Amino acid sequence: MEKMVIKGGSPLIGCVDVSGAKNAALPLMVAAMLTTDEMTYHRVPALRDIKTTKQLLLQLGVQLDDFTAGALRIKAREITDHTAPYELVKTMRASVLVLGPLMAREGRADVSLPGGCAIGARPIDQHLKGLEAMGASIELCNGYIQARANRLRGASLSFDMKTVTGTENLMMAATLAKGTTVLENCAREPEVSELAHVLNRMGAKIDGAGTDIITIDGVERLNGIVHEIMPDRIEAGTHLMAAAITGGDVTVKGCKAEHIESLLEKLSEAGLKIEIEENSVRVRSNGGIKSRNAETNPYPGFATDFQAQYMALMALGDSTCLISEQVFENRFMHVQELVRMGANIRISGRTASVRGVRRLSGAHVQATDLRASASLILAALAADGITEVHRVYHLDRGYERIEEKLSSLGADIRRAKDEML
Ligand code: EPU
Question: pLDDT tens-digit profile of 224-279?
Fold first, then answer.
């Protein structure tokens, strides 16, 4: 195991490039199963979740070729297996995204049912409800969902709640179904729009992605294309919050400000100076951090994937604020670790009350999930003394070369072997 050792106190200053978006790359990789042609993706981030997805695709009989750094060719000439096994689904819940493409192309998928995880119960009932509406039979056997259909047929359904991977799964399933599918109450995240855009370029007929209602006219076949993956808005926002918490001045290049509007609004209210250019965002500290309430919500609301990092920032705010988590019911695992660093945070149900303190102090802390890890790294960058963040494998799931990027901005951060665990 590895840990990050961080000596806090230096303001981060400079420019950093954003990587390709993990949560766009994952559905796009599995969408390659919808065609027998070759798909080529550029700007694929080097992350653990990407490796896991490659492993999953290989297991299904799909051919992969990393022909140069950040570029990936995927060819699903044949699909020889239909199982997403427990070992992979338990390390990466997004493995359930193979359900849609496998059902569309093969009419058969055996996917391990994901259990609860560090951020909540996270059921996939909506994905299954959709597939059933499209004519699939679903059974649960030995912990696996067994989905079967001859050919999926178009259906109309409304999601009970906004679900990102649920919307993506059913959109992929519907591309090759017979007839028209109408999905209501869809997730509007930019990653959903990116997937629809790619599928349409492959020959699909999808209308309305980015709004609540998506209509998909099924087609007979899709073809291969070349595509560059969109920038990672969560990585971009995390670097901007690193600038804010350290009293620094950071420009994130290659990101799209319109994808992180709700975060930028909050940072501006918190007293940060924001400069937006066509392909970059700069955040500059103005001195202190003003405490400002935040509530997470589906896009275009304040992203749950920013909540933990924003809480680290508010831990150093000038008064008290409330941070409410409305997407996942248990996404406060970072709180106790921040408290170990001197933060003053109390949780009541889905709301954390964060009373700003003058300083945080370095400590040994445990990363519990991806964004919680990022929150601890941010707190450590601002804390007095040395922090050791253990279990950094969570971080490696979603932040490409993070220590390299932060070092280039002046952070004192290094990766080390972890003898403690
Ligand atoms: N939900 C259900 N039933 C379902 C599906 C979802 O009850 O069938 C609930 C969930 O339990 C949750 C809410 O609906 O309370 C929203 O979950 P959603 O399905 O949108 O989450 P997801 O698709 O599993 C994606 C991202 C997450 C991100 C969430 C919310 C990917 C691969 N993952 O997860 O990213 O937090 O949307 O925006 O796109 C991360 O990158 O760290 C991460 C966790």
Answer: 999 999 999 999 999 999 999 999 999 999 999 999 999 999 999 999 999 999 99
pTM of the model: 0.97
Q: Tell whether 178 and 314 lie within a shared domain.
A: no
Residue that terminates a domain, selected from 209, 228, 247: 228
Q: Residue 142 belongs to a domain with what CATH number?
A: 3.65.10.10
Same domain, 268 and 162: no
Domain that holds residue 341: 2-19+231-417
- The DSSP line for 163-218 is -HHHHHHHHHHHHTSBSEEEEES----HHHHHHHHHHHHTT-EEE-BTBS-EEEE-
Q: In this structure, are 12 and 26 located in the same domain? A: no
Question: In total, how many domains does the chain have?
Answer: 2
Identify whether residues 14 and 49 lie together within a single domain.
Answer: no
Mean pLDDT over each residue of the chain, to the nearest integer: 96
Which class for 379: exposed (0-12), middle (13-18), buried (19 or more C-beta within 10 A)?
buried
Q: 282: Cβ–Cβ under 8 A, 6 or more apart, which residues?
A: 249, 250, 251, 252, 273, 274, 275, 276
Ligand 1 atom at shortest distance from the alpha carbon of 27 = 32
Q: How far is the CA of 116 from the centre of ligand 1 (A)?
A: 12
Distance 111 CA to ligand 1 centre (A): 17
Question: What are the residue numbers of the active site?
Answer: 117
Which residues, judged by CB distance below 6 Å to any ligand atom, belong to the binding site of ligand 1?
Answer: 23, 26, 93-94, 120-127, 161, 163-166, 187, 304-305, 327-328, 370-371, 398
65-102 burial: b if 16+ Cβ within 10 Å, else e: eeeeebebbbbbeebeebbbbbebbeebbbbbbbbbbb
